[in-house]
Amino acid sequence: MVSEFLGQLSLNIGDAARTRDRLSKPKARLDEQTIIDILTKRTYSQRRDIAFSYERRAKKDMISALKAELSGSLETVILGLMKSTAQYDASLIRGSIKGAGTDEETLIEVLCSRSNNELVEIKKVYKELFKKDLEKDVAGDTSGNFAKLLLALVQTKRAEPSSMVDYEKIDEDARALYEAGVKIKGTDVPTWISIMSERSVPHLQKVFQRYKSYSPYDMQESIMKEVKGDLQRSFLVLVQCFENKQLYFANRLNEAMKSKGAKEKMVTRIIVSRCEVDLKKICSEYKTNLGESLQKTIMEHTKGDYQKVLLGLCGPEE
Questions:
Q1: Residue 162 CB: number of other CB atoms within 10 A?
Q2: What pTM did the predictor assign?
Q3: Residue 7: pLDDT above 80?
């Protein structure tokens, strides 16, 4: 174990030395490819070790050096990689609600796609980073049923998956969703919020199947008919993620890159936030469902160092 630790440490110091050498070059000759190669092929934990080693050897902070030497889209991705997944997600949320206006798209994507355990960690890290309470910030920046849904998710009351399948409860919840929406005039939104924020994901997957025996529409179609605006978008992200989270992200990436005026911010956000969670599975779902690889789409719709860093994170086609 000691030799393994020392071997890893020496590897990290080697990485740090190479990173220091690249960062100390004149700007015109900065070797971005080496920075990309080193940082995209390491875990966050390894990148953090490299940063510590760099600071000891170069006597300066590596993140500050990266900020000084990089720019544009490459800088955004690389600086994102120097945060843990929870730190990055917390920063996305803070950025979406800080200042004038709210970036609802980012807020919905993060809060409605993360697991209960991820949200618990995000809340903790948010408090550490910004000295603020995530619940209070979300409540202060949203309103109505949209706010109630997001707050219910942030309260992390979702049940853990159980090995026991409760068919009676599945039927009860499916019927309750139908009776709170399609069956009546108007929508009993609190019932929808309660069920979708408190039940386990495997349970909800079965509920949505059972729902189709009550309603002429599936759950996503019902959401489209019953609610509008940010509340509709939030419920749709939840249901899509309950059904197949990796396919949801694959579709978002496809839409972002192929839409008129490619949404670079969305592409960066998804790839950086998922690179240590499920990016390989997202690549697999992308190829299976969209007819070409994510890597090929990146090659066609991005360019330069931004393209290289995205491909570095996705890895080779499988």
A1: 10
A2: 0.91
A3: no
